[in-house]
Amino acid sequence: MHDSKLISILKKLNSRERTRFGEYVHTAFFNKHNGLIKLCDFILDFAPYFNHEKLAQKAAFEAVFPKEKFSEQHIYTLISNLLELMNGFLAQIEFEKSQLTQKRFTMAALRKLKEQRQWQSVKKQYEILRLKEIENNAGSLLESKLFYDELDANFISKQLRESDPNLQQSSDMLDRYYFAEKLKSACDIISRNIVIKVDYISFELDEILKIIDRNIEKLSEWPAILVYRNILELLKNDAGYHKTIAVIKQYKHNFSADELKTQFDYTINFVIRKLNSGEPEWYRAFLELHRYLLQNGILLRDGKLPEWDFKNIVTVALRANETDWVEQFINEYKNSLPENVRENAYLYNMASFYMEAGRHIESMQLLQKVEFTDESYQLGAKIILLKCYYELGEYEAGMSLIQSFKKLIERSKTLSAYRQNSNLNMLKVAAKLFKFQFEFEYSSSPKVRRIKKAIKADLDILEPIANFDWLNEKFAQIDK
């Protein structure tokens, strides 16, 4: 039973949720099977870890049917039925999160019962709740459309030959919902096309944007449309960063924490692409944005700082020569990392810090302790190691690493074309830097000049190039 779907779900529920699940199973409205109540009580006794050896099918069967002979099929069926109750419980929890949805469903039921007095009372309750809603995203537009649908359905039920404004309101809300959701989806599509190897298409997007832009003055009263229109402009046309940031900040209270984080993620990825393309003036923008997100708790998810945000902040701050701040940041936010990745993320980022601080041996020692659970860690570790080899004068080892690194990138099935190209271009320049250092003492002056000229040409022409600043700095040193 330890590996069952039911146990897996129970492990992820908190104490309050597990207690409520027990109450749900005990409620006759949802469950009238006494055996399921006994099975539920038996399993919940092993909370919160559910790893005791007595949590087994035979023991569960004896707890439910103490006088019967063990039947594997019988207990399996009972566990499956309890899992179905769990599914219903999870749906109920989600349903309870939206009081508006509950009131709207109540109105529909009352309308069918022809209970107009109570229908009107619930309608007033709905309208009061809606005034308190802070969200103005695509989901809230859909909720409003469905509300007007209910009002229109109630009007029709009276069989009056009069004009009903709710039909127009429903139609208007549908348009706004569609535009908001279309923009949101288009942002996701373009972003994924950039980051991973896919070619998603947003149907007739350009035509829809023309409609939105023609009516933008009217539509901009809805924050979801205005915010995602600006984000899309940023992603499509590589323009409007500061305006987009300002709009997201202006309407931040209209969106859930998760959606707000997603909106800022688009701007973060935009800045990262700028940095990877060799535009160091964006370092300040990246750090300013992340300091704002940290101060406002926007980066945190369930109180935890995602490891990739942690890594990106460290990487960019080091490139901006904010070495002292980086060490303070790593130690201050280490315990904010999720426990299952905390040690790995800490070791990797400290290795990165040591490398930039000139403590190359310590950096290489820490890298040996990092578990490469993700391709990004693997690539990042190789870049740190490559830089350490260069600074330590281990040019032959560095040239060997470049060859294996190149094969890793070329064989990758998950890296986007952008990341592949930027890393391969980096290795192309790095190989010439290592070759210059390795052959410098044995090469003639004309050959040295040819290598330097080739490096300069690559830095000027190749795009994008990962770690452009570091490569450019090393070239400047040998150019002297």
Written description of the protein model:
With 480 residues, the protein is mainly α. Among the domains are: 5-96, no CATH class; 101-179, no CATH class. Helices cover 74% and strands 0% of the residues.
Task: Give a brief rundown of this model.
The protein is mainly α.
Features:
480 residues, mainly alpha, single chain
Proportion of beta-strand residues: under 5%
**Poorly predicted runs of 5 or more residues:** none
**Average predicted local confidence, pLDDT:** 92
Task: Report the strand count.
Answer: 0
Number of helices: 24
Q: What is the CA-based Rg, rounded? A: 30 Å
User: Helix/strand-derived class?
Assistant: mainly alpha
Cα end-to-end separation: 69 Å
Structural topology:
Elements: H1 5-12, H2 15-26, H3 34-44, H4 57-64, H5 72-96, H6 99-112, H7 116-132, H8 138-157, H9 165-195, H10 205-214, H11 216-219, H12 223-237, H13 241-250, H14 257-276, H15 282-295, H16 307-319, H17 323-333, H18 339-356, H19 360-367, H20 375-392, H21 395-411, H22 417-439, H23 445-461, H24 468-479
Helix pairs in contact: 2-3, 3-4, 3-5, 4-5, 6-7, 6-8, 8-9, 9-12, 12-13, 12-14, 13-14, 14-15, 15-16, 16-17, 16-18, 17-18, 18-19, 18-20, 19-20, 20-21, 21-22, 22-23, 22-24, 23-24
